[in-house]
Amino acid sequence: METDALRAEILRLVADYAAQAFAPRPFVPGVSPVPVSGRVFDGDEVQHLVDAALDFWLTTGRFAEQFEGAFARFLGVRHALLCNSGSSANLLAVTALTSPQLGKRALRPGDEVLTAAAGFPTTVNPIVQNQLVPVLVDVDLPGYNVSAQRLAEALSPRTRAIILAHTLGNPFELEAVRALAQEHDLWLIEDTCDALGSRYRGQLTGTFGDLATFSFYPAHHITMGEGGCVVTQQPRLKKIVESFRDWGRDCWCAPGQDNTCGKRFDWQLGQLPYGYDHKYTYSHIGYNLKLTDMQAAVGVAQLQKLPDFIAARRRNWQYLYDGLKPLEEFFLLPQATPDSEPAWFGFLLTVRPGAPFERQHLIRRLDEARIGTRLLFGGNLARQPAYQGLPLRLSGTLENSDLVMERSFWLGVYPGLSNEMLAYVVQVISDFVRHFSPK
Predict the structure, then answer these.
(1) Mean pLDDT (whole number) for 305-325
(2) Nearest to 322 by CA among 433, 410, 425
(3) pLDDT tens string 20-62
(4) Is 284 among the residues known to form the active site?
C-alpha cells in the first residue's frame, strides 16, 4: 500500500511538472519555427512513461499488450504486433513472406516485388535485404501513388508480391490493387506508416492487404518516440511475423512466461533431440526487433488522442489547400484519391515546369522564414547512390518520379500547427510568388 501511495504521488507530481515544462509558447512569425512534424502530447503521456519506468520491466510488457489489443480493435483486425520502428515493421512483413512455412507461396531469392519508385527507402530495402528484386513503378500525379494499371503493366512471370505506401497519407486505389493481387496470386503489403486513420471507400487503410505496417516515430500520427507495428488478419502470418521479430524462435511465449503451449519439453523439430526446450528452438533466421514497455506506454496514451489528431491533420491540410489554391498557376496542388478520406501526413506541392522560380529557391526562402519543408523522401530511388549496381528492374521511364525528385516538396499539417502558423506559411509563399509575378 505504501508503494501504491508513493506511485500515485509521483504520477501527480509528474503531471504538474509536464504542465510547466511543456507549456505552449506564443508564436512569433519569423522567429518561432513552423516544423513539418513533431510530438503532440501532454501530461498523460509523461505519466504513462513514468508509470512504466516504475515497473522497471524493461522489455515488452503490460503496456505493449494493452496497446496491441486496442490498436487491433481500432483497425478491426485480428492481430497487431509491435516492433521497434516502422522500418523494422516493413522488414518483418517482407521477410515473413519468405518463410518456408508458407510452402509454394513463400518468396524466394530472385522473385520480384512491385513497389513505388518515388518513396521512402525502407519500403524498398527489405526487398533487397531478402535477395528479392524490386520492380520500381512510376507514380501518377497529382495523387503521387502507383495505380493498378501501372502495376499490371509491370507484371512479369517472376512477380510474386506488391508493397506500396499510401503517399503522405493519401490511399492508393486499394480495391483495384487488391483485385490485381488476387488475380495473379500476389502477396499485398500496405505500408501504412504515413496513413494511420486514412480511409478508402469507408474502410481504414492497413486492413486491405495480407499484411500492413505502421510507424510511431515522432513525425507520425501517433508516437512512441521509436516504434512500429505489423498487423494481419491471418493467424499463420501473425505467428511467422512474431517468430522473425523474436529471434526466429518457434516458441510464442511472451517475455517472462513459460510453457503457454503446454508441451514445452515435448516438441521434436528439425534435427534436434526430442524434448529440446521449445523456448530455444528456432524455425526462422530472425532478429530481436521488440520495443520497450516504456515506449508502448506512451503509445497507449497517444492512441486515445488519435481521432482528434486525424481531424486536426485534415483541417490543416484543407487550410493550406484553400490558401494556396490561388497559386495553381505555379504549383500542382495535391489531390486525394477518389473515394478516399486521407488522414494527411503532409501537404505536397510540385513547382510546375515553366514556373519563374525553382523549388530550391522557394525552400531556401521558407527555411529563412523558419518554415520547415521536406522532399518526397528519396525522390526517384533508382537514382539514389545506395541503389546503384543493385538488381533493380525499372518499369517504364519513371518520368513522374523524376519530376517529383526535381520539383516536389511538402509542408507540415501535424496537429501542433495553429491557424496562425498556417496563415504565416501561406503568406510567405504568396509573397515569394508575388515577387516573380507582377499580377
Answers:
(1) 98
(2) 425
(3) 999 999 999 999 999 999 999 999 999 999 999 999 999 999 9
(4) no
| CA separation, residue 420 to residues 32, 130, 167, 220 (Å) | 11, 47, 27, 22
Question: CA–CA separation, 42 vs 25, rounded Å?
Answer: 14
Residues 318-371 pLDDT 10s:
999 999 999 999 999 999 999 999 999 999 999 999 999 999 999 999 999 999
Which residues neighbour 172 within 8 Å (Cβ) at sequence distance 6 or greater? Answer: 143, 145, 146, 147, 164, 166, 337
Q: Of 220, 221, 278, 284, which one is the catalytic site residue?
A: 220
Q: Please report, as a single letter, which amino acid is at residue 109.
A: P
Concatenating the DSSP letter of every residue in 147-201 gives -HHHHHHH--TTEEEEEEE-GGG----HHHHHHHHHHTT-EEEEE-TT-TT-EET
Question: Which domains can be identified in the chain, with CATH numbers?
Answer: 50-294 (3.40.640.10), 306-432 (3.90.1150.10)
Q: Spell out the residues 6+ positions from residue 70 whose beta carbon is closer than 8 angstroms to its own.
A: 300, 303
Q: SS3 sequence, 55-120?
A: HCCCCCCHHHHHHHHHHHHHHCCCEEEEECCHHHHHHHHHHHCCCHHHHHHCCCCCCEEEEECECC
> Contact 43/381 with Cβ under 8 angstroms?
no
8 A C-beta contact, residue 228 and residue 83: yes
Give the count of alpha carbons within 13 A of 104, CB side only.
1
369: left (phi over 0), alpha (psi -120 to 50) or beta: alpha
Q: Scanning the structure block, which residue is given the C-alpha cell 486513420?
A: 197
pLDDT at 270 over 60: yes
> What tens digit of pLDDT does each residue of 215-269 get?
999 999 999 999 999 999 999 999 999 999 999 999 888 777 888 888 999 888 8
